[in-house]
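Justification of resources, computational component.

The compute hours requested in this renewal are based largely on the per-chain cost of generating structure records like the one below. Each record pairs the submitted sequence with a full structure-token output. That output is archived, and it is also reused by downstream analysis tasks.
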Amino acid sequence: MTAALALPPAVTVLERGWLSSNNIVFDDGDCASIVDTGYGSHAQQTLQLVRAALAGKPLTRIVNTHLHSDHVGGNAVLQAEFGASITIPPGNADAVERWDDDALSYASTGQICERFRFDALLAPGSFLELGGLSWQAVAAPGHDAHMVMLYNEDERILISADALWEHGFGAIFPEGEDEFGFADELSFERWFAHEQSHAEQNQRADRCGGDEPATRSPMRAAVVLPVEVAFARSRMELGA
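The structure output for this chain reads:
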């Protein structure tokens, strides 16, 4: 069994059961943020868990990695309770604005999701601050064509959404996407290889400068374990 890795004190993972996604709560100082909010039938439980994690601080921001019902089902309840803003990837923003159950896949899957409004968009390549750390939105099509991951380079933490699980990755539905999902899932390998190469180049630059290289911790996913381990398992699932 792979040992779990520690996260910074400003980052708290609320590990949930089926059908809810995990929720990641960030201490932003005087306030707090959350990434993904679980499934609608668990919304009241999500509210209780989040309220306990906040320890009296206001929740001012909700960020979604993608718009599947198990990741946004608590948005409306948390928004109503705390008045939090909601930031989503741009791909299905129009469908959210007009609340198109079919385009958002809720009607076709028979899943529930209370309507919510969004306030901002999180484009791939953009940055936002959570828990005093800078996170880059990384495009991660495959499980969802518009999904993003969040990556903090300094701490080497990856919030991988459904692009990478502890044992594989989220289900892929190529018949429902414009592009072939399995090929998109493999694009994660290219991003991961680039980040590993970048870290190695930084270490070599440190050596050339005459200083001892800074110790680079393994990249961590929010599950929480080294991405290298989860990625190897994902490749086994793909047969790659």
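The helical segments are 43-54, 69-72, 75-82, 93-98, 106-109, 181-208, 227-238. The domain at 11-164 is CATH 3.60.15.10 (Metallo-beta-lactamase; Chain A).
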